[in-house]
Amino acid sequence: MPLDASNPLATVSTLPYELPDYSLLRDEHYQPAIEAGMAEQLAQLAELAADPEPATIANVVEAWESSGQLFTRALNAFYTKQPADTNPVLDAADEAIAPQLAAHGDAIYLDRRLYDRLAALAVRVEAGEVRLDPASAYWLERKLLAFERSGVNLPEDDQARLRVMNHRIAELQSAFGREALAGMNGGAVLVTDAAELDGLSQAEIDGALERATETGQDGWLIELENTSAQRPLDVLTNRALRERIHHASVNRGLGGAHDTRGIIVELTRLRAERASLLGFANHAAYVAADGCAGTGKAVWDLLTRLAPAAVANARDEAVDMEVVWRRFEPEAPLAAWDWQFVSEQLRAERYALDASVLRPYLELERVLHEGVFAAANGLYGITFTERPELASYNPEGRVFEVAEADGTPIGLFVADFYTRPGKQGGAWMNNLVDQNHLLGQLPVVSNNSNLVKPPAGQPTLMTWDDVITLFHEFGHALHGLLSDTRYRSQSGTETPRDFVEYPSQVNEMWALDEGILSRYAVHHETGEPMPAEWVATLRGSTLFQQGFKTTEYLAAALLDQVWHSTPLDELPTDPEQVEAFEEAALAKVGLDFDLVPPRYRSAYFRHVFEGGYDAGYYSYIWSEVLDADTAAFMIANGGLRRENGERFRRHLLAKGGSVDAMDSFRDYRGQDPDLRHLLTRRGLKV
Ligand SMILES: [Zn+2]
What we know:
With about 675 residues, this protein is mainly alpha-helical. The protein contains 26 helices and 7 strands. The strands form 2 sheets. A 5-stranded mixed beta sheet has the order 3-4-5-7-6, sandwiched between helices. A two-stranded antiparallel sheet has the order 1-2. The longest helix has about 35 residues, at about 295-330. The protein is globular and about 80 Å long. It starts with about 30 loop residues before the first helix and ends with a helix. Zinc ion binds near residues 472, 476, 501 and 504.
């Protein structure tokens, strides 16, 4: 059905940089625009495939890259808003769209005529009749591979089976996301005795009271976060409440109203079947083949090489913790719900810093302008100007214009910092408009986080982790903003999953850069800089509890690998088997350490079961190997300098996905990454 012309997504937004005009967009506009966009793209691609002219860059590569503009526009507008600002109408649209998107992908990548048209171009290149520039050559190589990975060469009945599987997988992933979000919200812990809140700040107590009142309950409501670890456990002195929150967190999805186990069983089995149909040993192998890692074995080798060192360090840390714990509870053994609390005590003693003394020095506006933006300015010369007249999808979203040192416009950066009902947990980056020269589009990117909004008129004071997250997400934003590619599909963060975290992780290093830190870490009331000994302590504390952190991460990453590399006949068939499977998986790799639960347990592991990082959660540490190597290289070359920024920008950020990712790394670095830098950074010995 053609799209109603009154739908604001029907035409390119007239706002600067094609920023979607959310002031005109209503919830019911997205779905029809996305659906019409898919139909339009299929028609355009059918024309491309049927073109009787000899295949050229213009009538194949550029024609493809010019197709589906309505689809991209509508999809970007929707998937920026929906995770950050959802409601039942948008959730219903998401549910309806997800399987259609999978079908759309199938309609393209299982279309033999399209594949043949691309292959015809490859033949002409081979014969010397067409010369491809490197980006077009890489485009063609990856596109042909994508077709082959989709099963275009399968017999017809297998293709039909594949379509059914893809459709069901998409439905299940979407259902997992919804159930996990509902389970997280529904798992909030109600406290009725104010005395139990001891340890929380007044602002946190007020916030908990507000949340309870909003939901019509008497008392204080402690909301859950995505991860197993819950921040209030750092500070709550009441052990029984810590235990309640911990159990509410780690038992999410295991039975009850938002049980996700049935979804996990069906989904992992389907993914295994699909991989085998496509000729891969398992889903993990299928995923690794598309990344820098190449093979499931390479992933398994890296993770299992790190695991024993991580657990050994975590066990050493537990010994330290027991000593402190004896002072609180001489009788009871240390439990998982005590770890964060004791860890904070130990941190306070050893590093004489806790979150509450740091917070007044980590005020959001200052961290943003004098930290995150200042570092980008020092490296790339770019500037940021807030444009309050430009609105985003929620009144809390803020829009900044980004420009080169000489004033040349770069794009827009949308920042949406605060947690609110209807926003998913965690922090992430989105593209609203992808940079590309072919269509002359400049980038519009957004960052989301879940800072707790202070009462009106009060400053937003952050934890150290919040600061790192801000730098991290902004690293993704820079990848999008500094992209310099001809094709949209190769723009900015359009790189393999095990590469895409690399630039964002590198950007975290500037949080502790001496020159930058002294600019942003200033007391919000007195204007005094953060004391030098605290800075030294912060620096030293980066090694603190790396055993715990690496273990909880690797446990989640290996769970993901085990779920996706176990042969079909050994995968659970019954939801009741999910927990036992998880336990056995962790035991198998020596990560079954009760005091350190995986960062996500299976039943709320959205990265993996909602999709996006399925068999790919390893990517963070794969990228960190590249990051640690790069950070060491930058420091050896003088740290925060324009020369360092320009080199990184030219060889890496600007290239996006227009070249092989590891080639761009080697171009930048002049050699392969060295694993030792990661081990040194984390204090791990193998
Ligand atoms: Zn990231």
